[in-house]
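Re: that chain you flagged

S.,

Sorry for the slow reply, it's been a week of failed gels. I finally had a moment to sit down with the sequence you sent. For the record, here it is as I used it:
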Amino acid sequence: MKIFGVATAAAVVMVSSFAMAAGSMVADVTLNPAGDFKASTNEVVGEATQEGDTVKADNIVVKMGNIETKMPLRNRHAKEKYLEVKKYPEAVLTKAVGQGGKGKGMLKFHGVEKEVSGTYKIEGNTLKASFPIKLSEFNIKGISYMGVGVEDEVKVNISVPVKKK
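Prediction finished late last night. Pasting the structure tokens below so you have them in one place:
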């Protein structure tokens, strides 16, 4: 069940890439050899703004301690062993800019700062973004429990409010 936690962590991190105030995130985690699960949180703080075709966000914070995978043991393993939420309580996105449905920003997660990129769309007052991350790029590797592992790439999907200027 430990494997599920790592992917959850990655998903939360990615959420920060385009997150706004009162946001939410769902990460699609694929297991190997088979299966999948979703990891989610509503602990996304910050705000994005849209001006014309440009979307910007800075200092978007994802609180890592409240990740939910619908399985208590997986939650505990994710937080304690893989995400190390006591040592890394937040994932932070800075310098995020998007235009024409594509965006990128700097994500600091699990002690590593790296550029992330993905796609987004705005529906009403909601920004919906999707982007992949590789857990290994954030020093999260080897997640496996009873012969089942987590794939390195996790797809993060987020929906957050967006403020139009």
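What I noticed first: The first helix runs from residue 2 to 15.

Talk soon,
D.
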